[in-house]
Design a protein that fits this description.
The chain is α+β, with helices and mostly antiparallel strands. The chain has 6 helices and 22 strands. The longest helix is centred in the first third of the chain and has 21 residues.
Length: 307
């Protein structure tokens, strides 16, 4: 009986071996097309706000896919990817990522379907954020037209802004500057939105990207006030000025200049007291926004009673 079994096994053995191999191949081909599910590694890419960095490694992420073994094996060569963007508005140092199957992206076409992501929630840690209130520095130039002038200076609203970012960056920021801007041939009030020069702040962010520049520009005029008395700032009655009165030329906004009189300005002479007779330069005190010069701009002061 053993001889008959051995004869059955070895008779036409090449044909039998080939049949066995073909059966194995056929089984593998059929098995490869059978639907199944499998957990595959996922490449997780987290994009933090500009200038910030993650402070600890990300945990491994896997995705549950359904499909044939032939298709699932493709995911090992080119793993699926999830890209998560952390918003720039994040002020804290931690953020929770919510992961969903719809977030998965395949680098290669594969006839598979994502069913789950594990884990679904990941808490990431980022470096700390510093904040600092800094003044706004103007790089705006206003050039009035001929016969006009800026009255009261140039104002900004707001006059300071909050910068936020990594401590090493924020600590080195002393001010936020506007972009360079020149406004020419101005003949009236200026109201203009001007961007903050964020390029000078590096990776730091600013609470307000624009400020409002405002200035009052008015027509200017000039007139002379005659016989304005010189007031000597010293012991009353102890000094005599020569001349006792001067001409004062005032310049400023036309409407205001037209309303000025001799009593609107004061011409002061302050002796040093080092000598009984001395030449003193005059100082003209005017209302805000008015420029003035005295003609002549010096007087002779002499102690009363000296001949």
């Amino acid at each position: 009986m053993r001889s008959g079994l051995r004869a059955a096994l070895v008779t036409n053995w090449p044909i039998k071996l080939t049949s066995l191999a073909l059966a194995a191949v056929l089984w593998a081909a059929v098995a490869a097309e059978e639907p199944t599910t499998q957990l595959v590694p996922v490449t997780l890419i987290v994009e933090p706000p500009e200038g910030r960095a993650l402070t600890r490694p990300l945990p491994p992420v896997k995705a549950l896919y359904a499909g044939s073994a032939r298709e699932l094996i493709k995911l090992y060569a080119t793993p699926p990817v999830i890209t998560a963007v952390i918003p720039d508005t994040l002020a804290g140092s931690s953020y929770v990522l919510e992961l969903f199957p719809n977030d998965l992206k395949l680098a290669e076409d594969a006839a598979v379907k994502a069913q789950d992501v594990q884990p679904r929630r990941i808490e990431v840690e980022l470096d700390a954020v510093s904040r600092r209130l800094v003044p706004v520095v103007s790089r705006v130039t206003i050039k009035p037209d001929t016969g006009f002038a800026v009255v009261g200076g140039v104002a900004f609203s707001p006059s300071s802004v909050l910068v936020r970012g990594p401590d090493a960056v924020v600590s080195g920021i002393e001010a936020a500057t506007t972009v360079p801007l020149e406004i020419t041939a101005v003949r009236g009030p200026v109201r203009r939105r001007v961007p903050i020069d964020t390029g000078s702040l590096g990776v730091a962010q600013v609470s307000q990207r624009e400020v409002e520049v405002s200035a009052e520009v008015e027509a200017v005029s000039e007139r002379a006030l005659l016989e304005v008395a010189v007031t000597v700032r010293a012991d009353r009655g102890s000094w005599v000025a020569d001349p006792p009165a001067v001409i004062v030329t005032v310049r400023g906004p036309a409407m205001r200049v037209a309303q000025l009189g001799k009593d609107s300005v004061a011409v002061l002479a302050v002796p040093s007291g080092a000598a009984r007779r001395e030449t003193v330069r005059l100082m003209v005190v005017t209302p805000p926004g008015i420029d003035a010069t005295a003609i002549p701009d010096t007087v002779q002061l002499q102690r009363r009673g000296d001949g």
